[in-house]
Amino acid sequence: CPVFSGEENRVPAKCLICGQWLCCEAWCCKQTIGGKDVGSCTAHALTCGAGVGIFLRVRDCIVLLLNGVGKGCFFAPPYLDAYGETDPGLRRGNPLYLCDERYQRLQKVWKQHGIAVTEGLVRQKAEHNNCELSTLEEVSLHQLDIERIEILDKVCRELKILYLQSNLIPKIENVGRLKKLEYLNLALNNIEKVENLEGCESLQKLDLTVNFVGELTSIKSLEVNHHLQQ
């Protein structure tokens, strides 16, 4: 521990920007910033990356992404075993090797200061449903600097209400399997075209306030959404 000499760091995290070691999820290194108690990783990200931080938790082999106070998610590490699989928590104990493709993806997320939609992030936002995704009907992923819609159509097939406003999403995609989706909020994003909503058979309300929809003819694609009211 960098604060209490001799104390063991149970959840050590390494900043992948500057290489500094920190205590993650530990009371010993908490700081108060702007009247709020924050962990050492959040505090370090504010000084090292202007609020954007990327850390490797070495004992459970998982990447922690932070974007300001209170915004962050876990991200798959760029290390794979011989079978091409990650080993979160190092439960299997197989040797892991750096995957260049995964590393490049992680680097892109950091450079663009964006947060990816991961299963871990969705679980964090599903506390009201005991973090269960298969039965999740409503989730809020707003103001997270998300750049792409993904994962949701695979792990949250029961979604009825989805909040994605105030992000950086340029394209509507990967929602076609959400057959029960009734309300989709995409206000304050970077969307230029209305598309890929044909599979949302139950869609009743779509919010695209303050976007950049230039192809007005693309709105005609909503004609197949017979339940759409506004």
Could you outline the blueprint of secondary structure elements for this entry?
Layout: E1 12-15, E2 21-23, E3 31-33, E4 36-38, H1 40-48, E5 52-57, E6 62-67, E7 72-75, E8 79-80, E9 97-98, H2 100-111, H3 119-124, E10 138-140, H4 152-155, E11 161-163, E12 183-185, E13 205-207
Parallel strand pairs: 10-11, 11-12, 12-13
Antiparallel strand pairs: 1-2, 1-5, 3-4, 5-6, 6-7, 8-9
GO molecular function, one term: ubiquitin protein ligase activity
Catalytic activity: S-ubiquitinyl-[E2 ubiquitin-conjugating enzyme]-L-cysteine + [acceptor protein]-L-lysine = [E2 ubiquitin-conjugating enzyme]-L-cysteine + N(6)-ubiquitinyl-[acceptor protein]-L-lysine
Function: Ubiquitin ligase protein which is a component of the N-end rule pathway. Recognizes and binds to proteins bearing specific N-terminal residues that are destabilizing according to the N-end rule, leading to their ubiquitination and subsequent degradation.
In summary, what is this structure?
Pathway: Protein modification; protein ubiquitination. This protein has 230 residues and is of the alpha/beta class.
Account of the protein in words:
The protein has 230 residues and is α/β, with parallel strands linked by helices. It folds into 2 domains: 11-99, no CATH class; 116-229, Leucine-rich repeat, LRR (right-handed beta-alpha superhelix) (Alpha-Beta Horseshoe). It has helices at residues 40-48, 100-111, 119-124, 152-155, and strands at residues 12-15, 21-23, 31-33, 36-38, 52-57, 62-67, 72-75, 79-80, 97-98, 138-140, 161-163, 183-185, 205-207. The strands form 4 sheets. The chain has a 5-stranded antiparallel β-sheet with strand order 2-1-5-6-7. Strand 1 (12-15) and strand 2 form a beta hairpin. The N and C termini lie far apart (55 Å). GO terms for molecular function: ubiquitin protein ligase activity; zinc ion binding. Residues 6-111 form the E3 ubiquitin-protein ligase UBR-like C-terminal domain. This is E3 ubiquitin-protein ligase.
